[in-house]
Amino acid sequence: MVCCCLFSVPFFCQLHDVDLSQGKIPPNATLIFEIELYAVNKGPRSVEAFNQIDKDGDKKLSELEISQYLKEEFARDGKKRHPSAHDEILADIFKKNDHDGDGFISAKEYNVYQHDEL
């Protein structure tokens, strides 16, 4: 499946004087992009991802489960990170997703049942 989409960027949202191989984008120009979608994959908020993180199968994610998952993902991508990055990301995940403040992220809080449509 290939889906095409055209959109334009108004001149006031653009960077001006960007050097291109054919010259520069003049001020007050409207840029038009053509984007092709080649594939749609399940994102990180899938039921499968939730179940992969939920090691004990209790349908809620603990700090320990998410921490272990983050460590595995960090090791897999091999990028160098400051040691505090893990703790900051973990805290941010719970701040944004533990809506009831119980110290766990439920399937509902993880948002596995709601989908953003294309």
Automatic annotation (TrEMBL):
It catalyses: [protein]-peptidylproline (omega=180) = [protein]-peptidylproline (omega=0). SUPFAM superfamilies: EF-hand, FKBP-like. Its EC number is 5.2.1.8. Coiled coil: none annotated. The keyword Transcription regulation does not apply. InterPro entries: EF-hand-dom_pair, EF_Hand_1_Ca_BS, EF_hand_dom, PPIase_FKBP. Residues 41-76, 85-118 form the EF-hand domain. The keyword Signal applies. This is peptidylprolyl isomerase. It comes from Zosterops lateralis melanops.
